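Assemble and predict.
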Amino acid sequence: MFSPQTYQDRRTALQGSIKNGILLFLGNIENPVNFEHNPYYFRQDSTFLYYFGIQEPRIAAIIDIDENKTIIFGDELSIDDIIWMGRQETLKEKSQKSGVSETLPYRELSQYILKAKTANRKVHYLPPYQSFNKILLSDLLGIKVAELQPSVEMIKAIVKQRSVKEPQEIVQIEQAVNVSNDMHLLAMRMARPGVKEYEIANAIQHLAGDKECQMSYPPIVTINGGILHNHYRLNTLKDGDLFLNDSGAETAMGYAGDLTRTFPVSTTFSTQQKEIYEVVLNAFENAQRLLKPGVKFRDIHLQASRHLVDGLVDLGLMKGNPEEAVKNHAHTLFFQCGLGHMMGLDVHDMEDLGEQYVGYTEDEPKDTKTFGLKSLRLGKSLETGFVVTVEPGIYMIPELIDIWQAENKNAEFINYDKVNEYRNFGGVRIEDDFVITNEGYKLLGNGLIKTVEEIENYRKEHIS
Amino acid sequence: MFSPQTYQDRRTALQGSIKNGILLFLGNIENPVNFEHNPYYFRQDSTFLYYFGIQEPRIAAIIDIDENKTIIFGDELSIDDIIWMGRQETLKEKSQKSGVSETLPYRELSQYILKAKTANRKVHYLPPYQSFNKILLSDLLGIKVAELQPSVEMIKAIVKQRSVKEPQEIVQIEQAVNVSNDMHLLAMRMARPGVKEYEIANAIQHLAGDKECQMSYPPIVTINGGILHNHYRLNTLKDGDLFLNDSGAETAMGYAGDLTRTFPVSTTFSTQQKEIYEVVLNAFENAQRLLKPGVKFRDIHLQASRHLVDGLVDLGLMKGNPEEAVKNHAHTLFFQCGLGHMMGLDVHDMEDLGEQYVGYTEDEPKDTKTFGLKSLRLGKSLETGFVVTVEPGIYMIPELIDIWQAENKNAEFINYDKVNEYRNFGGVRIEDDFVITNEGYKLLGNGLIKTVEEIENYRKEHIS
């Protein structure tokens, strides 16, 4: 945990930006796998972590703006609990570490909410993503799950605050990124013909675990990198395959890292692999240099797309005017997704609070219709303290190529004959994490090898 | 998956034991960790696995008894899904492997249920344990979550069927137990002063993962074995500690193993450790020999308790008549829990369906009041084909000793002075998995070392 003062300060700042009412924060529970008492590992809700820091299931908290008090609701251990689970720090002690002196039994929460509602006071709450909390909110508020109305005022205030990372949060994120770096180097040492994808996934998870980290998301470790969210891991690596590893660690305090590297299972890149890789790397480096306060991330995304098109024109897969190609979204045959997203206590930071608030503004909302842009999670102007990923890629998706070609879509920009030579190429993605500074940007963590030469040398050194 | 005929036969048998109405089976979903699209690993509901075998989130099934038809509800992939997740086997294809030819879109489920309700037909469903399915059932049936009434007729029929394992299920369970054996041997090779508990937990999970297994439950790997459900894993092992490892693998098809071994972090047992260990081992071996059809597991539990008391009397921790001691539950100061439980597709098999049906009968219900017996999950007569764990233990819990001593509880059977010499001893548990046969029992898996001599020799050989 950070210091009690940290949580106190964060709550005070939040309190100052909400007019009145009660702010209700629900912690997460231990979600059952196949029966009630066989749970998945516990992960506290990120907003709860941000304002209270307590990693404990089945607790809740209230900041009562009108009465200027903060209460944590939860139950102390019974002697039965102690016999089964051992003596632990009390909730009272944990709350004090969070700077909160008042605790009440969990069952008192419904009384408190009922009283507030009876007094016609506003009860602010966030969009629930775990079904347990949907039912809980429905019970607390006496309305149907489908009728829940999260507080936009509360969402906006929290997004504003959590978007700008404190220095101590950056320390945590760099710790996550450095463990992620080690995971990627391990994968580079392991990947060779005959190895199974899941063996690499298991090994990097083991490494993270030994550094007291979880995975910040289900790792994508695949020889079919053309499939964007590929969680199938039963393939065997073979010579000639491109291996894509998109994985990151999460620290014990909940902060995420998120990195991607792509490299050949054979120790060296083939000419085709190297050419595409360097197009992506060039787009990556250009995008990185554009990061600074005041620049719209949507514009950096489009610039990166331009650089991808430039490279694809050089290789003969695309043709015509690159700017026109991007305007017509012709690049989305190869780059179907977004350039990056916010990162922090969540790998897609605050995704539960709503992309429209986290990545966009009311004046410039998200384009939810256009293929490509509808998958861009971050469009708005960058600010000092934002932490973002940059992750351009080129993905060959046979099903998509066939659909576009049948429609002759964007034929003035795409050489379909040439593209079909690459239809089983797979995909290349390169991804790093950055914090926006007053001057521009800073790469988070100690840096991870990225050029063709660096990767080939590292693998030659470690693969016998 | 097993053969289509297997699932067909199981469904036919179930259908024959329910008078009328509709049997509704809900599959599990991908539960979110910290936002909707960041999920925990997917685990299908065990009953769904048993009757349909399909490992796919957000599907449901109906066996319509009245109209004698079976339908699987779920959605085929869209082109958008294929771009992001790759081309996969269709739900139609998966359903055929389950012996089901009729599939319908997921949204049609509510229509089907509505029609049945309108026609005043009975809709049978099981107790939901995941909140998502609580909400779904509430919506489908138009009643509040708190008012859901699972079908006892359906529960009883399923428990009867799933309790008796088929030979092909025993093959799966033995596979799980053998991977669990390897996990335990690895822990025995790793455990030495300076190692962290979590390093052992991570390593055994890695081993299981490389054999395409999950953990069947959160492993208990601890130097504080006196805490029964200890999931704290940050301690460092040191000379003199007893190390307790309660962990098991689950096969890709969902079948569980569940083993416990306890051994000293120093290569050899201390006299005190050895003495207590052999009391538990003796109780274990005696209990094992009692396993056979027709014997009540509750009686074996009480016999095991008697053997524990015999040993504790010999060591001077208890005194008086052992039978009287057990009758007075004096052994529960050391053995607070139950001797074992059913095991199968769940490590506590069918716990979601209700212990009163799985472990007990209406004529001889569970003793839910008496300390000790209230934690015994299985009491009823064993039958050929049941799979059970046997797991006696002796646990020193300082908090419990203090409470009993203050009350002078069972003072005629307990030498509190002597007991206090052991208050920081920790705990010993020994656990194996058995199938009940016509002749008696069969140990599942290839067997795992268990005597003091075997464990000391193995560790001397592997710890340098």
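Chain B has a mean pLDDT of 96.
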